[in-house]
Amino acid sequence: MKQTANDSLVVGGEPRVDLLPPEIRAERRDRLRRRRLGFGVIGVVVVTLLGVGAATFVATTAQVRLQSEQERTVSLLAEQAQYSEIRQMQTQVELARAAQQVGASTEIDWQDYLQEVQATLPDSVFVETVDVDSASPLIAYTQATAPLQGARMATVEFTAASLVLPDVPTWLRALATLPGFADALPGSVTRADSSGVYTVTITMHINDAALAQRFTAEGEK
Length: 221
Known about the structure:
It is built from 4 helices and 4 strands, in the order H-H-H-E-E-H-E-E. It is α+β, with helices and mostly antiparallel strands. The longest helix has 61 residues.
């Protein structure tokens, strides 16, 4: 008897015989493959459902946040509408204050200032006439073209009468102590024969230190 290489001789082993037809074994293998394929399909479906669920959750969360922000915006707009009249009044008040500051930016209290001018003169001297030319908030004041003359925003030309011979240099030094004094130029000195009264004309220039600043805040003065 010829023995092939694949045949093995088992001594004392239990004899076994596979009587199943090959078709049954093939069907079992096909059934196992179909079961594994079914499990794979179920796994893909589960993963897909999880992905769809996660995407839906993210989209829903974003929508809720968007709706919350929109509601907050509507609420803020409603609150702003409640205070719109107050803001308009505040704006009008600020505009009025700005207009006051601009309108009074060149204001000088001439009554008080001319009294101070009179106070610098000797007791025997009194101011007869006054001519004032001051700056406007809308037009720049004309400045001097001559050298050694300071900036000015107003000019006061006054005529003073004296019963004695006037000491004009002393008058000018006294005028220089006034706030806002820029410079002063003496004019002619005349004497009336009938009364013996001397008349002196003085032109005085005033700078911004004499401004009243009625509507200027304390920190801006």
